[in-house]
Design brief:
It is built from 11 helices and 10 strands. It is of the alpha/beta class and about 325 residues long. The strands form 2 sheets. It has an 8-stranded parallel beta barrel, surrounded by 5 helices. Helix 5 (about 145-155) packs parallel to helix 6, helix 9 runs antiparallel to helix 10 and helix 10 crosses helix 11 (about 305-315).
Length: about 325
């Protein structure tokens, strides 16, 4: 079932969803089940599963020679989606990313997803590898999310990369990312917004935002979208602060602001438990405001730890 259908069927009631990281290579899928089981109480209609490109590691040989090896740390996205559908009977939403995949590999992945009965995808450029100074596209792949989006749209229209005969149309509901505080590589909010509008005009069906801690930024962003003809659902992405280090790490990694009131509350905490409690309390207030505003879904970035999200959802849903 498409995310847009889930939202329409909720008749204005906010839905609950969350995102999962595949386990590190060699670890059990039981970790995924442990992250999902506690949150099923809140009846998520869909669960996102992230995709991760390859990175580099260096292996030292007995001679002392270092060998640069391509290594994918968190494989298994498609299989995890299949397992979620089979075990929980909810929709799984795999991320699609540019980095690490050629156009042909992307097409084959989309065919696999269609065969599995997966109706939704979230299209992203993806992050740069740790060793790279900036995002570097894979040879034969896409450089930008809008290019990847176009490939999915083409397949929805029956246009494949090489087939010169009539081909079956896919029917994916396509999501894209948005940044209420601007993508860090965009020169200004206006340029960032222009590219978002382009993606929606190309055929994106819903939007999921980067995390934020100031609801006014989401409210302003949604209002601006509506004023400019972007009428698809805009799903807020959420993550509570749970450690004091995140006051530094979240702005550094995700290029977001933390409101003064929240940063002072966290700084005043005497223990890490107090920090987690303060972050969860802030997020509960955020969620209640977002529901009152009319957010269609509250989407949580759990990072494999369901406990903070459970505590928030217990107070909100």
């Amino acid at each position: 079932m498409k995310i847009t259908e889930h939202i329409a069927g909720a008749n204005g009631k906010a839905l609950f969803s969350f995102e999962l990281l595949p386990p590190v290579k060699g670890q059990s899928i039981q970790q995924i089940y442990n992250a999902i089981d506690p949150l099923m109480e809140f009846k998520p209609p869909f669960i996102d599963v992230t995709y991760h490109r390859e990175d580099y590691i260096y292996k030292q040989h007995p001679t002392g020679l270092l060998e640069k090896v391509t290594y994918r740390k968190r494989p298994g996205t498609v299989a995890i989606c299949a397992a979620i559908i089979n075990r929980y009977k909810v929709d799984a939403v795999p991320h699609l990313i540019c980095g690490g995949f050629t156009k042909d590999e992307t097409e084959n992945a989309l065919i696999d997803l269609q065969f599995l009965g997966i109706d939704n995808v979230l299209v992203l450029r993806g992050d740069a590898r740790k060793a790279d100074p900036a995002f570097m596209p894979t040879p034969g792949g896409h450089s930008y999310a809008c290019e990847l989006l176009q490939q999915v749209v083409n397949m929805n229209n029956g246009k494949y990369l090489h087939e010169d005969h009539d081909s079956n149309k896919t029917n994916f509901c396509i999501g894209v990312a948005a940044y209420p505080e601007k993508h860090f590589e965009s020169p200004n909010p206006e340029t960032d917004f222009k590219y978002l509008k382009q993606k929606v005009d190309m055929g994106a069906d819903f939007i999921v935002t980067q995390m934020f801690f100031d609801n006014q930024k989401y409210f302003s962003f949604v209002n601006r979208c509506r004023e400019n003809g972007i009428n698809v659902p805009i799903i807020p992405g959420l993550k509570p602060i749970t450690t004091s280090k995140q006051l530094i790490n979240l702005p550094k990694i995700f290029h977001i602001d933390i409101p003064l009131e929240l940063s002072e509350a966290v700084s005043a905490c005497k223990t890490e438990k107090d920090v987690k409690d303060a972050g969860i309390e802030w997020m509960i207030h955020q969620c209640k405001e977002l529901i009152e505003f009319g957010a269609p879904v509250l989407h949580f970035y759990t990072m494999g730890n369901p406990e903070p999200t459970y505590r928030i959802a217990k107070e909100v849903f």
